[in-house]
Amino acid sequence: MTGIHVDSVTKRFDQDATKPPTLDEIGLSIADGEFVALLGPSGCGKTTLLRMIGGLEQPTSGSVLINGEQLSGASKTTRRKLLANVGFVFQEHNLLPWRNALANVAVPLEVRKVPKAERLRIAEEMLALVGLSEAAGKLPHELSGGMRQRVAIARALAYDPDILLMDEPFGAVDAQTRDSLNLELQRIWMQRRKTVVFVTHSVPEAVFLADRVVVMRAAPGQIVEDLRVTIPRPRSLDASLTQDFLATTARLRSHLGEGTSAQELAK
Ligand SMILES: Nc1ncnc2c1ncn2[C@@H]1O[C@H](COP(=O)(O)OP(=O)(O)OP(=O)(O)O)[C@@H](O)[C@H]1O
Predict the structure, then answer these.
(1) Ligand 1 within 6 A of 43 CB?
(2) Which ipTM score applies to this complex?
(3) How far apart are CA 26 and CA 63, in angstroms?
(4) Which residue has the CA at smallest separation from atom 30 of ligand 1?
(5) Beta-carbon neighbour count of residue 76 at 10 Å?
(6) Is residue 13 lining ligand 1, measured as CB closer than 6 Å?
(7) pLDDT tens digits for range 153-175
(8) Is 2 close to ligand 1, i.e. is its CB under 6 Å away?
(9) Burial zone of 258 (CB within 10 Å; 0-12 exposed, 13-18 middle, 19+ buried)
(10) Is 89 in contact with 167 (CB distance < 8 Å)?
């Protein structure tokens, strides 16, 4: 069995059993190479679910399997092996401020003790992939917000993980930059075919990027929709004007009534 399997996962942060759990018996299977967006109102558990898949959070009950192997409750060696295959990109880029873009991309390779020449070669290749070869020598504060997120993506891809977990990676950039980052991410994904789980508040972003959009609701955190997006790729920004796109976004929005502000939906 390959891919990601979330099997009946419940998560309670609060032990008070009278309160609804943050995640309630979540079941979700993601195939290798699939791009899945997680959508839902604030506090419905998207980040918790993503962190669970990335081994940063333990389920109260149920299990997470990566390529058929149990992540939850696994030995340290097994966890390390499974998580070596997972890359993270967060809303905050977490770049080291004293290191230039190239050296930041090389960090995970250093951790894995990849020899220096090989590190540089891979880091240069990754920066080229995200269109930032020219910025290799720049420090994070010399880069725009969008460029910093691209460096963070290059860093996450540097050790070639099969799975990329992205938590609102473009939530803090302006609308125009977000559009270009979405185009860029689609191009990279089509080139590299990673399995991507992408948390977002933006309905159009989810529809633009994903093969499947999974909608959650809060209290208890449950999946209320799992919708396949059939718009052909590569999708251009103009795809958002098509009937198919508009019908898909309308259907998703129908699940996102209370709790998702008009401002969030407009992003
Ligand atoms: N470590 C924690 N300890 C206690 N409660 C937590 C913890 N992490 C998350 N929660 C709670 O779990 C719920 C879901 O949080 P989570 O961050 O997963 O939601 P989200 O859908 O990603 O929200 P947002 O869209 O606002 O980022 C929230 O009520 C949150 O307060």
Answers:
(1) yes
(2) 0.97
(3) 10
(4) 43
(5) 7
(6) yes
(7) 999 999 889 999 999 998 888 88
(8) no
(9) exposed
(10) yes
Q: What's the Rg (C-alpha) of the chain?
A: 19
Tell me the C-alpha distance between 239 and 22, whole Å.
Answer: 35
Residue at token pair 């008009």? 262
Q: How far apart are alpha carbons 175 and 173 in whole angstroms? A: 7
Q: How far is the CA of 46 from the centre of ligand 1 (A)?
A: 8
Tokens of 214: 């999974």
Q: What tokens does 114 get?
A: 């990849």
The amino acid sitting at 264 is E
Is 202's C-beta closer than 6 angstroms to any atom of ligand 1? no
Residue 72 CB–ligand 1 contact under 6 Å: no
Residue the block writes with tokens 């940063």? 56
**What is the tens place of the pLDDT at every residue in 39-51?**
999 999 999 999 9
Nearest CA to ligand 1 atom 31: 43
Q: Regarding the domain delimited by 4-85+163-266, which CATH topology (the fold level of the hierarchy) does it fall under?
A: Rossmann fold (3.40.50)
